[in-house]
Amino acid sequence: MTAKEQDIVSVIKKKIEQFDTQITMVDVGNVVAVGDGIARIHGLAGAKYNELLQFPNEVMGIALNLEEDSVAAVILGDDSGIREGDEVRATGRIAEIPVGDVLIGRVIDSLGRPMDGKEAIKTKQTHPLERVAPNVVARKSVDTPVQTGIKAIDAMIPIGRGQRELIIGDRSTGKTAIALDAIINQKGGDLTCIYVAIGQKASKVAQVVAKLEEYGAMEHTVVVAANASESVALQYLAPYAGCAIGEEIMEQGKDALIIYDDLSKHGWAYRQLSLLLRRPPGREAYPGDIFYLHSRLLERAAKLNEENGGGSITALPIIETQAGDVSAYIPTNVISITDGQIYLETDLFNAGIRPALNIGISVSRVGSKAQTKAMKKVAGKLKLEMAQYRELAAFAQFGTAELDKATRAQIERGRRITEVLKQPQYTPRPLENQVIILYTAVSGYIDDIPVDKVVDFEAALIRTMETMHSEIGKDIKETKDIGDKTEGKLKAAIEGFKKGFSAE
Fold first, then answer.
1. Where are the alpha helices (DSSP H) in 397-430?
2. Closest among 330, 325, 338, 355 to 265, alpha carbons compared
3. DSSP state, residue 119
4. Contact indicator for 104, 222 with CB cutoff of 8 Å
5. Using CA atoms, how far apart are residues 88 and 147, in angstroms rounded to an integer?
6. Is 297:333 a contact under the CB 8 Å cutoff?
7. For 203-228, what is each residue's pLDDT tens digit?
């Protein structure tokens, strides 16, 4: 045998030794029909609900309808390159998203792909989009506040960690503004925020991100965006993706705040998807499981007990009403799922009362459990004053000439408290400043200040308290209470300031 033949034999021997007999089985099907982002596939007998499917040209899909002899899948991406007869492979993976601290400060889509032009997300940590909510045994009652920095909300409609509080109102009434202020107010705190934009204009999402960057809030925020131009499937998956990111934070024993902006558009996306999948339509053409769509999402917001790590997810879903109709299908569904609602009114917004809170309809079902002792002391009296003012204001519109002195005084105080509760956007107030100004209002110190001077009085008072009496604010911040000693100092400081303000 020649040297050349020996070389050939050795190469063949080596190949035989290295030969791998392992066979991999892949579930394969073929496209029967495709259109409007939906593909019908024959085969895939072993496909699971929500399983990722591999189409040609690196396009992915999700199995949603599992029928007797076919699977209907929604295509995540461009379906123009998919043809009848194309091969589709099951991946064995349920729809998932990358999670972890690497996402903080980033803008991503519903599948975790970057949308901010920065580097790819590098993490092996993933979390399934759909997951069963924590059960009753794993939960703990809500007892820690989420400070939004908005006086009217923190005082009268408090939000606790683990709560679901709905923000509802017509378009352009300041719903997103409240959510953004709540995110900005967490700067330097221990709450990680997730803002989920569903079916919004790309320009609006860009504005939101720019504002969050301007106020330094992107350092603790993840933005999940499924814009109006994206496929309906990505809009449907967006809130579940945001919730999966929040669950990873909760499982580490930390706290997350999720804004779903907004679930009306999410309902529309799911209706469109269901009709394309030929599911039977129900009321207003929504499918029969539209309630379950939002209940399984919002039930994942919870406060876990100490044995389960003590983490929490707080959800602030947003719903847009049409002409103030809160009795429509989606609004009533979400109201029944959540632990209260913040109702914003167009008339109040146009009258210059911003945030345009209707305090009569708005409610927090967690109540004062999610308030600090300091806020409880001022908020109880504040709610009473505002309730009495609302009742009396209805009579006062017919003229105040015949009203007695006590009624007139009540109305005048209510007008001044309403001025105090007004707050410009992007100016969340720290707890101590809120407590000081609300204490001043309910204790009657602003009763003799002209209504048009109340805003100036408030600004000047806070400046004085921060510069000359900083120890009062520091004590309220640290103890989260107003002790007798602190209250005495606060009264003296307010009275001293008021003399100077009057002189001005």
1. 405-421
2. 330
3. P
4. yes
5. 49
6. no
7. 999 999 999 999 999 999 999 999 99
- Kindly compute the dihedral angle of the four CA atoms of residues 457, 459, 464, 467, in this order, to the nearest 10 degrees: 180
Q: What is the largest CA-CA distance in the chain?
A: 126
Distance CA 438, CA 458 (A): 10
What are the contacts of 19-23 at 24+ separation with CB within 8 A?
Answer: none
On the 0-12 / 13-18 / 19+ scale of CB atoms within 10 A, 76 is buried
Extended strands (E) in 335-409: 340-344, 363-364
Specify which residues 72 forms β-bridges with: 40, 65
**Reported pTM:** 0.91
* DSSP symbol at 49: T
- Please enumerate in sequence order all residues whose Cβ is within 8 A of that of 72, keeping only pairs 6 or more positions apart, or say none: 38, 39, 40, 41, 63, 64, 65, 277, 278
Q: What pLDDT does 503 receive?
A: 54
- Write out the two tokens for 114: 């970057």
Q: How far apart are CA 41 and CA 88, in angstroms?
A: 8
The two structure tokens encoding residue 423: 């707050």
The verdict on whether 131 is a catalytic residue reads no
Give the span between the Cα atoms of 29 and 67, in whole angstroms: 13
Q: CA distances (Å), 4 to each of 11, 12, 13, 17, 158, in order?
A: 11, 13, 14, 20, 86
Contact, 68 vs 45, CB < 8 A? no
What three-state secondary structure class fits 169? strand
The helix or strand, by DSSP H or E, that contains position 330, with its residue range, turns out to be: helix 329-337
- Which burial class, exposed, middle or buried, applies to 65 when counting CB atoms under 10 A from its CB (0-12, 13-18, 19+)? middle
Q: Which of 365, 416, 429, 463 is catalytic?
A: 365
Query: Is residue 73 a contact partner of residue 89, using CB atoms and an 8 Å limit?
Result: no
Query: Which of the 8 DSSP states describes residue 351?
Result: T
Instruction: Extract the residue ranges of the chain whose pLDDT is less than 70.
Output: 1, 19-25, 399-401, 502-504
pLDDT, residue 16, reads 76
Is the CB of residue 286 less than 8 Å from the CB of residue 267? yes
